[in-house]
């Protein structure tokens, strides 16, 4: 069976689609068969990223390893079983289509609570939750007191992940591996950064996730999107002299993939 990786939280602008695309492309470049789904049916940023990539590769007459991205198949109401949810059926059908030809299926979730997102979390073997290094985004995981340290209780998103874990346990599936990724970390050891680190470390033990470093705030990500490129493609398109910022970003991606500890994956880029 394919290993399902879900990239999700319930806030926009945290780098979900950038993380999804770079992870999916990194796995494809390492020789793994990668399927891709975008559950944000309105925006489809991940889907557009892949579309841009395929178009640019064709226009430039180059080969770029890419995930096998598909849209959720349409299902007629008449084809549903009694009591079956339409969105559940569409997601299950998409996974069934991808699974025979995939080692990994990478799923990008919307920045809001939806039925599709809820079901994807329950299907995930690995859950990646990108988080901007800010207490505004920390609120996604837990409610805290004004001191920025004392945790009052889990957030609605954390409760959803807990429910997904319970569903997996009832179905006899392997436990969910949840990784919170700290994006846009400041380069200076500021007081807020330290407080965030302490609060996340405390919460990790309490509600059961691992912490991994993510991506810094880099202009390169916004520049690559229109061509569907990732940090790993720069030399393929003729950029042989990487800037210090680009080299640092590649190292961030390398460290992230390594931290995920995915089955049969050895980091080689």
From TrEMBL:
Organism this protein belongs to: Planktomarina temperata RCA23
Family annotation (InterPro entries): DNA_Partitioning_ATPase, MipZ, P-loop_NTPase
Phylogenetic classification of the source organism: Bacteria, Pseudomonadati, Pseudomonadota, Alphaproteobacteria, Rhodobacterales
Database matches in CDD domains: ParAB_family
PANTHER family linked to this entry: COBQ_COBB_MIND_PARA NUCLEOTIDE BINDING DOMAIN-CONTAINING PROTEIN, P-LOOP CONTAINING NUCLEOSIDE TRIPHOSPHATE HYDROLASE
Gene that specifies this protein: mipZ
Protein's name according to its UniProt entry: ATPase MipZ
């Amino acid at each position: 069976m394919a290993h399902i990786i879900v990239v999700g939280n319930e806030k926009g602008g945290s780098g979900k689609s950038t993380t999804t695309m770079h992870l999916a492309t990194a796995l494809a470049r390492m020789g793994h068969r990668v399927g891709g789904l975008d559950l944000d049916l309105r925006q489809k940023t991940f889907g557009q990223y892949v579309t841009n990539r395929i178009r640019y590769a064709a226009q430039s007459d180059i080969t770029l390893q890419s995930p096998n991205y598909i849209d959720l198949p349409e299902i007629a109401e008449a084809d549903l079983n009694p009591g079956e949810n339409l969105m559940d059926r569409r997601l299950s059908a998409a996974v069934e289509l991808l699974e025979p030809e995939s080692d990994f299926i990478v799923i990008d979730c919307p920045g809001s609570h939806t039925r599709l997102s809820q079901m994807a979390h329950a299907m995930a073997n690995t859950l990646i939750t990108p988080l901007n290094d800010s207490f505004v985004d920390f609120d996604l995981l837990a409610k805290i007191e004004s001191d920025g340290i004392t945790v009052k209780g889990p957030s609605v998103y954390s409760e959803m992940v807990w429910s997904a874990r319970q569903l997996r346990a009832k179905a006899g599936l392997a436990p969910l591996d949840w990784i919170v990724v700290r994006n846009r970390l400041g380069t200076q050891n500021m007081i807020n950064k330290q407080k965030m680190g302490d609060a996340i470390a405390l919460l990790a033990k309490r509600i059961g996730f691992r912490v991994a470093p993510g991506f810094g705030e880099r202009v390169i990500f916004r520049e690559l999107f229109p061509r569907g490129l990732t940090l790993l493609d720069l030399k393929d398109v003729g950029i042989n002299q990487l800037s210090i910022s680009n080299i640092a970003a590649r190292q961030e991606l390398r460290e992230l993939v390594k931290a995920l500890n995915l089955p049969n994956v050895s980091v080689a880029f």
